[in-house]
Design a protein that fits this description.
Structural class: mainly alpha
Shape: globular
Number of helices: 12
CATH superfamily: TorD-like
Distance between the termini: 66 Å
Radius of gyration: 20 Å
Largest sheet: none
Number of strands: 0
Strand content: under 5%
Order of helices and strands: HHHHHHHHHHHH
CATH class: Mainly Alpha
Helix content: 55-70%
């Protein structure tokens, strides 16, 4: 590993965190234009097909270098529905995704807290933004990347598997579909693509293959699919309702 590589990943993670941490303002939009963020993410996420970076480029072009007050207000309302009011019915916290009851501040949050405590870290106020909030979890990964040691990168890989990748990409994918503003849809899509790419890099550095913890939403969907299939099989033939021969 090189200090330059780990520093680059930490810097990009810092940018991703800012996209989710608070409402977008003119300074953020100007900064994204200044660093050509769409090109940066396109290079990191490079794949055979057009990716989320293309949508970010389009969203930034629509906003321009200095977004109007109306555009900023619209993005602020969109941000609130996504992160503050549960307006889109998708939670930015791991406990909701990892527990069968889909509740906030459950055991997954305390598991995450133990990771933070191991590195002498603590969230400012878990009652306002829980330990397993997307922003806090990404901030922790960034902290490990900034440390850059073999042990820290190993912990980053394991933490991503246990506490982030099992839910965050799906949260972002749903956010990209439901948000009203192209900017938040694009940044969510970028994040959904970025996290697995980061994990692949960590595998190349640590030799630890991904072993991602499944979430309760996925298990519930699997159960519903199996139940629906079983009902379809068990349902007796009723003349006139189904094809006959």
């Amino acid at each position: 590993m090189t200090d330059t590589a780990t520093s680059l990943w930490a810097d990009v993670m810092g940018l991703v965190i800012r996209l989710h941490d608070r409402e977008a303002d003119r300074d953020l939009i100007a900064h994204l234009h200044a660093i050509d963020a769409a090109t940066l993410f396109d290079a990191i996420l490079a794949g055979p097909d057009e990716g989320a970076a293309v949508f970010l480029e389009a969203a930034l072009a629509e906003l321009g270098d200095a977004p109007s007050a109306e555009a900023l207000d619209e993005m602020a309302a969109d941000y609130a529905d996504l992160y503050l009011t549960n307006g889109y019915r998708i939670a930015p916290t791991g406990s909701v995704w990892f527990t069968d009851e889909h509740l906030e501040r459950q055991e997954p949050m305390f598991e995450v807290r133990e990771w933070y405590q191991h590195y002498d870290l603590k969230v400012p106020d878990w009652r306002i933004r829980s330990d397993d909030h997307l922003v806090h979890e990404l901030q922790f990964v960034r902290h490990l990347l900034a440390l850059g040691t073999t042990d820290a990168l190993t912990d980053a890989a394991r933490f991503l598997d246990l506490h982030v990748l099992g839910w965050a990409p799906e949260f972002c994918a749903r956010a990209a579909e439901r948000t009203r503003t192209p900017f938040h849809a694009a940044t969510a899509a970028v994040t959904a693509e970025f996290l697995p790419v980061l994990r692949n890099w960590l595998e190349s550095e640590t030799g630890i293959a991904p072993d991602i913890r499944s979430n309760a939403y996925a298990r519930a969907q699997d159960r519903e699919a199996r139940q629906a299939e079983a009902k379809e099989i068990e349902r007796p033939f009723v003349p006139g309702l189904e094809p006959s021969w």
